[in-house]
Amino acid sequence: MKTTSMTKNQSSFGEICKVANQIRKERKCSQKEAFALAKAQLAAQAETPVVNDNANSTVTKEQFVKMLEAGSVKFSFKNNRGVINTTKGTLNPDMITKTRKIAGAKVAKNPEGIVFYDRIHGVYRTLLFENLVKVF
After folding, report:
1. 3-class SS at 7?
2. Taking the domains of the chain in order of start, what are their residue ranges?
3. pTM surpassing 0.90?
4. CB contact at 8 A, 75 and 86
């Protein structure tokens, strides 16, 4: 029985394809667009170390929710796959579009979750405060 070892390029290509398929399902975009987004996302993930600055943060959960209710807040968080995303979010209903149907759950599955409107991607997202990395 011959054993084969995967090269670094083959394994990273497999990761890119896996992420691209997930993006394609979520965003309903073309395979070419999804592949480009996945490649950029994995490249950024490789360059950005996963660091949780929440222990050093001076923002409490209540303060963060009040900031979201007041307007748009730029922040970074770690998603469930361990990738750090930076986005602008809000809980202010005046800043949420009413011209189209918005994807995402408006109610969190986890009672500790904060559901916010992602102004960059135009979807509702759930955030656990423990996964908050930085508020800009």
Report:
1. coil
2. 8-47, 53-135
3. no
4. yes
Nearest CA-CA partner of 81 in 15, 7, 33: 15
Residues 6+ apart with CB under 8 A from 39: 16, 20
C-alpha 45: how far from its chain's center?
Answer: 12
Beta bridge partners, 116, equal 125
pLDDT tens-digit map of 68-84: 999 999 999 998 888 89
The three-point CA angle 75-104-110 to 5° equals 75
Chain center to CA of 58:
22
Q: How confident is the model over 80-130, as pLDDT tens digits?
A: 888 899 999 999 999 888 888 888 888 888 888 999 999 988 899 999 999
